[in-house]
Amino acid sequence: MKYTQAAGEKSTVNLKISFTDEEWHEALNKAYVKTRGKFSVPGFRKGKVPKPVIENYYGKSVFYDEALNLLCSENYRTIIEKEKDNFTEVGDPELSVESIEEGKGVVINAIVPVKPEVEIEKYTGLKIRKFEYNVTDADVEKEIERFAAKNAYFTEIKDRPCQKGDFTDIDFTGFLDGKRFEGGSAKNFSLELGSGSFIRGFEEGMEGMKTGEVREVNVKFPEDYQADELRGKDAVFAVRLNKITEKHIPEIDDAFVKAHAGCETVEEYKKKTRERLEKNAEDRGKDETEGNIFTEITKYTKAEIPQAMIEREIDKMVQDFSYSLLYRGLKIEDYLKYSNMEMSDLRKQYTTEARARVISQLIADKIIKTENIKAGQSEIDQKIEEQAKSLGKSFEEHKNSIDPGQLKFIENEIIIGKLFDFLEANNEMYTESEGEISPADGTAKPAKTEKAEKPAKTAAKSPAKTAAKPAEKDGEKPAAKPAAKRTAKTTKKED
C-alpha cells in the first residue's frame, strides 16, 4: 500500500491510497471466504461454491464491495496513526474508488475531515462581563418551602366535593360532534384542579363533583391548539371522578428536619441550605462567566469548522439529553413521539449550540498551546490528594487505583482551570448587577452566549396539555435539553 496526501477544502485532507494488484486479489480472496455462505448456485451446497463459479454466476464484481471495505478497514487507521502529527481526524472519511484495473490494482480516494487551523486575532485586553449571583434570605426560605412541598403527604377526601387545589383521580372520554376522538380518553388520570394542565374550562367544569359522580364537561379547544383537527372546536368530555385527595405540606420544625434532612435543628438546616445555594450560585456565575469569555473571543476567531465536528458534538448532546430523560423514566423515542418530532428535528435544534461548543474547544486548545499551559506533577498530586481525602483513602492507595484515562482527566481539569485563570487575569472583567435575578429564580438572565434553540414544546394530542410531557420528578419540570457543560472541561484535548 502507498498513499499521498494533500490539503483539501474546508478543513479536509485528501488521501489517495493505492493498492497493488497482489493486495487487491488478496482482498478479493478474503471477501470470498467471509461472504461465500451467502451465495446459492444450483448444483452446489451453500458455502461450498468455488470462487470462480460465484463470480461467473453473479458477475465478476460480486466481491468488490466487501474487498474494498476490507482494504479500508485494515489500512485506513494505520494511515491516520502515521499522520497524527500532521493532522487530527475529526470524523469519518468520504470514500470513493478512483480506479480498479486488472494487473494494476486499486486506487481509493478519501476525503478526511480534520481539526481546523484556528486564527485568533486577540484573546487578551478584552472587556468581558463577569456574572455574579447573590443568595438572599428570601431565596433560602423559598428553597425550604420547596423542600417541605417535596415531602408533602396526601389524605383522601370523602365528605365533600372536589375544589381548586385538590388532586383528583379521573376517567374521561372526549367527544367531537358526538364521536370519540383520538387522544381524548384516559383512565385513572391524576389531575390537580387549578393547575392549568388541561385546556381552559375542563378543570373549572369539574369543581363541585363528588366521588363516583359522572359529569359532562363542555370545552372549546383554542385556535392555536397543537392538533389541527381540534383547533377551535367545541367538545364534550364525559368525566368520572374516582377519588379526591388533599395535599398537606408539613411544618418545618426541628422534628421535620431531623427526620428528612439529617439536621438537628431548623437553624442548622437553614445554614446548610444557604451554603448549598451559595455554592450553586458561585458555580453558576463561574460557568456563565467562562462561557462569556469564549463568546467574546469567538468574535475575534476564524476557523473553517467541518460539519463532522458539529455532528459529533450533537451526538454527545443528544446522548446527554437521552440520559436526562431516562432519569425521569422516559425513553427518547417516546419523548420524540409525544413531542411530534423526528430525531432530525431535535438534532437541528442543537446545531447552534453544538457549533458554539466546538469553537470554544478549538479556542481553548489554541490558547493552551500558544501559552504553553501545562499541569505540573505537584499540581496533579495535589488533586489526587484531595480526591483521596474525600474517599477516605491514602494518597498512594488512591493514586495506584487511578487508570490512565482518569489521570488524563485530572491533568486536563488542571489545565482548563489555569486557562481560565489566565484569561480572567489578562482581560478587563466587569460585573453588571442591573436586571439580574437571584440564583433561586429560574428566570435569571443567562450569559449572552450562543445557545441551541430549545426543543419544540410538546405537541400533545390529548385535551391534557401535559399528558404527553416527559415524566416529572420531585415536582420539578423536565429538562427541555441537557444541561450545558463547559466544553473545554469535558472534551479531551486533541493537540
CATH topology of the largest domain: Trigger factor, domain 2
Query: How many domain regions?
Result: 3
Report the mean per-residue pLDDT as an integer.
86
Q: What is the overall silhouette? A: extended
CATH class term of the largest domain: Mainly Alpha
Q: Number of helical runs?
A: 15
The name of the CATH superfamily of the largest domain reads Trigger factor, C-terminal domain
Which architecture of the largest domain would the CATH scheme give at its second level? Orthogonal Bundle
Beginning-to-end CA distance, first to last residue: 28 Å
Helicity, in percent? Answer: 40-55%
Overview of this structure, please?
The radius of gyration is 31 Å and the shape is extended. The protein has 15 helices and 13 strands. A hairpin with a 3-residue loop joins β3 and β4 (105-113). The protein folds into 3 domains: 2-114, 2-Layer Sandwich (Alpha-Beta Plaits), CATH 3.30.70; 127-139 and 281-490, Trigger factor, C-terminal domain (Trigger factor, domain 2, Orthogonal Bundle); 153-248, Chitinase A, domain 3. The chain is α+β, with helices and mostly antiparallel strands and 495 residues long. 21% of the residues are buried. α1 packs across α3 (64-82) and α12 (377-391) packs across α13 (395-401).
